[in-house]
Structure formats: C-alpha cells, structure tokens
Amino acid sequence: MLFQGYTRIDLTLCPLSLKEDWNRGDEGISTILLDKDDLFRAPQLLSDKQYHLQMPTEANFLDCCNEFWWVCTYVVKGLCRNEFLYAVDHLTIQARTELLRMMSWRIATERGFTFSLGKNNKYLPNYLEKHEFLELQSTYDVSTNKKVWHALQASQVMFIRESTKEAKSQLMPLRPRRSLKAVTNFVYSYLRYLLFVNQLFWSCIFSPIL
C-alpha cells in the first residue's frame, strides 16, 4: 500500500476464518499495527532468525562448485556462437548466483551464522572490503561480448578465491584451482576451433570454382 505522502507498507488482508495463519512464514518479521477487536494472538518478538545464513554441508558446497563451473561452459558456448543473451543469462542468473552463495558462506564462516544478507543480498557490500566490492561490481558490466568474457573471468577468479577460503575453513574437499579454470579456457578454444572449421567447410562448398 502506497500513501499520498509516499509512505509504503506491505499490507496483508485475510478472512477471519484464516486469522490464525495470517503471518505464516513471516512470523518473525510481521507485526500487528492495530487490532481494535482483539482478535489476534500477541505476535512473537520480531526477529529475522529464519533468514540467517546457514552453514553449508559438504554436499551443499560441492553442488555450488559443480553448478558454477558447469554453467561457465554454457557462457563460453554462448560467446563462441555469438549468442549474447544466452551467454549473459547463464552468467548473471546462474553462475553469479553460485558466486554470491559462496561469498555469503565465506563471510558467515568468518563472522558466525547469526545474520542475514537481506533480500537479493542487499547487505552483502557491508561485509566486503572496498576492493572486493569493486571486483564484484566489475562482473555486472556485460554490455558487450568482450565485457561478458571479462566478467566471466573475473567471476572465476573470485569463485576460486572464495571457495578455497571456505574449503579450508570448513575442511571441505576442493579440486585443484588451475584445472577448474583450465576447463573453461579449453572449452572456449575448442568451440572457437569448431566454429572456424564449420565456417571454412561451408565457405568451401559455396565458393565458386575458378
């Protein structure tokens, strides 16, 4: 609800038959502003504990690593095929999600899993050094194919650093760093080669014989 004075509140309306469940799922962050008929039970103390960062299990950690590096090859494939939107979507929607997940685990491991980074990680910059935030910001510039490639490489550098720190802190298994990034570089080189061969093949077929 938006008032004339530009004050905004999230207003929930529900029938009386469902009044016991009016704030289900949001118990810690919702409160009753006015209850003239005294129909609702006293709300719990406000707390965002249910949204606190959770310590990753080994499976969580490995899944995050696997997803990040696997999706990186999709970004490379999109770039090699000149499929700009395909590459950008896989970088910004999937790969970056895993990078931010790993960063949040590393931060919480250092500070304790007793806080939330807020919706869309809006409080994440508060826990980063200035150079770390600038590095992260650089991955959001994806306006050209060249910048997408640079953003991908920067994301990989950050992910290697963050996952290495988290693995050491939580005693998680981690593959050799060089081999992970080498996979992306190999895929890029190989796909570029296939693209070149494909173009050469069709140019030979349709070229007039002199």
From TrEMBL:
Keywords, in A-Z order: Nucleotidyltransferase, Transferase
Organism: Priestia flexa
InterPro entries for this protein: Aminoglycoside_adenylylTfrase (IPR007530), NT_sf (IPR043519)
Keyword Transferase: yes
GO molecular function: nucleotidyltransferase activity
Protein name stated in the entry: Aminoglycoside 6-adenylyltransferase
Taxonomy, superkingdom: Bacteria
